[in-house]
Amino acid sequence: MSQAETNPPVRHERLTCLYEEFHRRFGDAPAADFPIRAVRAPGRVNLIGEHTDYNGGFVLPAAIDREVIMVGRRRPDHEVRLYSLDYQEEAAGDVRTPDRTAHPTWSRYVHGVVWALQQRGFKPGGFEAVLTGNVPQGAGLSSSAALEVATAMLLQTLFDLPLSGPEMAALCQEAENRFVGVNCGIMDQFISRMGRQGTALLLDCRSLEYRWVPLPDERVRIVIANTAVVRGLVASAYNVRRAECEEGVRLIRQWEPTVSQLRDVTPEMLEKYASHLPEPVRRRVTHVVAENQRVLETVAALEEGDWQRCGELLVASHASLRDLYEVSSPALDLMVELALSVPGVLGSRMTGAGFGGCTVSLVREEAVEQFLATVIPEYRRRATWQLAGEPEAYVCRAADGATVIS
Length: 406
Ligand code: GLA
Fold this sequence. Notes:
The chain is about 40% helix and about 20% strand. It has helices at about 10-25, 105-120, 145-160, 165-180, 185-195, 235-255, 265-275, 280-305, 305-325, 330-340, 370-380, and strands at about 35-50, 60-75, 80-85, 90-95, 125-135, 200-205, 210-215, 220-225, 345-350, 360-365, 390-395, 405. Alpha-D-galactopyranose binds near residues 50, 53, 54, 184 and 188.
């Protein structure tokens, strides 16, 4: 995500490179009779509803204009042949035996999706594909979900698999949970598959009911800022938070037997029982209960075109993630503070799992230039921690979820 790339390279240029590479590598393969297909799946930014998905709650993410693109074709045998344009690496395997320890590591996500399809009784055959992606990695913008969903989309297209969008999202989550071994919720895969241009998506992570919420107009822009801090702690802390939430459910159930997830805890219940909960469980539960309310309030505010209120809710969400859920970091806090110091910035918060990665800000159009000109240089100047790359900001557009490219 370099500054020069504020406008992501046009898709068709990347697609042309992929086709050229595909023909160079697989042009004369025995599969030459099968049609070649291209698919894409985006990364995401979560506007609000953080650490609520695995508690059965609400989230409001948008798909972004950064994506994984794959060009592929069936093979007449069981081989899987992959090539990553970005890493300039190939990977090979057998579709009948998905390999958890495959190298290079990016190919494990592809194997994971094959595995998850097989768990559901699908039997994809061999295939060959080349891929490229411009979702920043390790930045909390769901580059792995984009790769999983792109893979599922490609296999669905190549092998005519009857899979609805939500089913595909669930299957990709399963690949990540049970094959790759990362215990994430459903949000990232769902939005990567189901996003729609110009909208955010309100998802009930328990029922998987969803609806698109139009982002009212272009006078307010979504700006993503990358702290360039590697999210070292994220995996272990994430699992600890999940366990603390489960502990909260276990305790509250003693008094409220209908509670099966934190989603079921109402603000009234929390008020009644908070003082009976040990720390840090009380803080975690308090965050989740209020964050779910904030998601619904943000949707109402968006529908009224009340950006000011949306901004306030983002700010409240960040404070809660920092003080109650304790998944922010000095880098994220600084980025948020700097963003909020720019006149015309309505709200700003960390987005994704936390501990590093990106912030999301709602910025009035006339303030975008100043945001880009001041926030990142000032962040660089004041960062006393080690940076793993270039901190940068970009204005994102809410994009469509995964599609077959015709
Ligand atoms: C990560 C996970 C998501 C979600 C967020 C926190 O992005 O992959 O499922 O839990 O963290 O909201």
